[in-house]
Design goal:
- The chain folds into three domains: about 120 residues, MgtE N-terminal domain-like (MgtE N-terminal fold, Alpha Horseshoe); about 120 residues, CBS-domain (Roll), CATH 3.10.580.10; about 170 residues, SLC41 divalent cation transporters, integral membrane domain (Tetracycline Repressor, domain 2, Orthogonal Bundle), CATH 1.10.357.
- About 65% of the residues lie in helices and about 5% in strands.
- The protein is built from 21 helices and six strands.
- A hairpin with a 5-residue loop joins β2 and β3.
- It is found in: Cell membrane; Membrane.
Length: about 475
Amino acid sequence: MTTGTDEARPDQPREEDAYALDRRAVAAILYAVEVEDRIKLIELMEPLHAADIADLLEQINPYDRARLIRLYDKEFDGDILSELDESVREEVIGVLKPDVLAEAVRDMESDDVVDLLEDLEEPQQETILDALEDSERVAAEQALSYPENSAGRLMQREVVMAPEHWAVGQAIDFMRANDDLPEQFYHVILVDPRLKPVAQVTLGKLMATRREVTLHEIAEEEFHTIPVDQDEEDVAYAFNQYHLISAPVVDADGRLVGVITIDDAMVVLDEEYQEDMLRLAGVSDESSLSDSVAATSRRRLPWLGVNLITAICGSLVISQFEAAINQLVALAILMPIVASMGGNAGTQSLTVAVRALATRDLTGSNVARVIRRELLVGMINGLCFAVVLGTVGMMWFDSPLLGVVIGSALVVNMIIAGFAGTVVPVVLDRLGVDPALASGTFVTTTTDVMGFFVFLGLASVVLL
């Protein structure tokens, strides 16, 4: 008998855990490692995607990680390396046997090899480079010569190109006869005699068109090229903005040197999002769950020190009203509420502004309108909560004037919070400072200091 409610059985994963590693599978893998059963380990690992194996390696302790890698041995795949978090990848490379590492690296796409190399120390870079064929080594070293976080580092060298005057049949025959095609690609790039890209054709269009039709006739109307030295953030923005699947990369002379695909662009977008989230919390964007206690502590200390200094600034403001607080203890009880509400409102405005700056929705043409909106939002929300807090203050301490004072202070601080939460990241962005990294400290300091000052100042004038 079934009921109207769909309840998951105990052996079924919850929806939010649908793609999480199965705990029983992990336990079985660790048991196989413990008893050194290589055949069983390979059997258990075979169904797992490279990304899942990377997650497994990141989640287990270093001792078990090293034993698993040694036992897994020659089955270790290059895709696993490309999926690993940077903080664990270097450790894994140190455990792999040289011949296993060499074979894993040879199976990787050129862009994944470069991504692997740029995060390693020089000795380990040499180990990876020595494992490559001469042509692949030259390509990797050339990619590393491009600026960090540029399109040249992001692109893959393997491209599929054809002259624009070729017929569809020629292009298909060429691809079928070529053993060096990339494992995954989405376009055939059309080039002129000087290897300058002029258009591109999607594989779907190519396969659906008669053999005698020329490639130029079925080229996409929208066509974008990426300069090799363009910042990867701009590349990711272009992919997101123009809905690109892949785009050719060109050098200073406009010649084709590589291609960037959507998966690489989305990785950049995801990394930028994670960096913004971590930096808004005052945490280094290099932080990871795999980091040691010492490394984690070292990265967090500087911003905690900055927060200590800003907290002292707020305390200095409070100290100026020591006499008022001594005369009316209610002020000490209520003033954290004003600062806290302002801080939360400021963080809300700040988060929206930082995200809008990252997606380039907040620009010089609309910044004034956005600031006005945040001021009005702060005022409306401040008035709503001022009624509640003013009533609470009045009933709690039997003082109507105290209710008016704290309500008025809350409205003012909420307006200041909306203003600071928008203006501070915009100003920092104009100054070339990452708004996600520094805005939070300035905004919370502003709302704390102004909240204390307005509330205690009004109280001193009206109540004493």
